[in-house]
TrEMBL record:
InterPro entries assigned to the protein according to its UniProt record, in alphabetical order: Diguanylate_Cyclase, GGDEF_dom, Nucleotide_cyclase, Rev_trsase/Diguanyl_cyclase
Keyword hit for Methyltransferase: no
Pfam families with a match to the protein in the record: GGDEF (PF00990)
Protein name as catalogued: GGDEF domain-containing protein
Organism annotation: Paenibacillus agilis
NCBIfam families: GGDEF (TIGR00254)
Keywords: Membrane, Transmembrane, Transmembrane helix
Transmembrane segments: 7-25, 31-48
UniProt GO molecular function: diguanylate cyclase activity
Source organism superkingdom: Bacteria
Any GO BP: cell adhesion involved in single-species biofilm formation
GO (cellular component) term, any one: plasma membrane
GGDEF domain ranges (all copies): 88-225
Amino acid sequence: MNIGQLVLGLISIGIVTAFNLYLFAIDRLSSSFAIVSGIWIVMSWALGKYIDLLRYTITYDSLTSAYSRTVAVKQYRRLLHRAKRKNGAVAIYFIDVDNFKQINDNYGHNIGDKMLSKIADQLLQLRIPEKVVVRWGGDEFVVMVPCQSEHEVEAALHLMNKSIQSINQQGTISLSISLGTAVYSHRGSHQGARPKQLEQLVDMADKQMLWNKQRKKMNMTVISKHTGTGRYYPNLCRKMF
């Protein structure tokens, strides 16, 4: 039983009990008990199903089954807490599909939607522990990955590129992505520094993605806890960890 059904079931039991006490008081319990109980059981089940469906709709993107943007901050905070506990970092990867408008124009929006679903499937199947895949909007995805080293950041990046390349082997439409990365690290001596907000990290990764889209080189933006500032470093910034 899901949470929505459980809560509504308990409420329904309370209402039915109160109503039955009233019926008992006026000596009309026997025939009305089954009717009222049956009605409330059906209503609680239906409402519970609706609440669970609503919760799923809010949590997940209907087209790709990736997380929706509305719950991205909650997932980021969870990874941030993990990074703090393990003295690690959180890498934010911003992914944009190259020439996606042309795919829609040439093949139709149905094919475009299928391409987005395939991309999301590949990202969701990546063997990266505790990763979070979010459809940020349109043809843009954000992937959040907990990491302990620069090597893990770079490895995840190459896995993402490789997973998208595998789609090209399955069909006739050529797909490519541009990707930018921003990393927030909890390592540093200045304990008073505040963590960067997700929107700020995504914005920096987005700008890096645009830079990479033009140059097609993999660079990375790093946010350091003790500086609170971002800098661009080539070759995935070996100074981060």
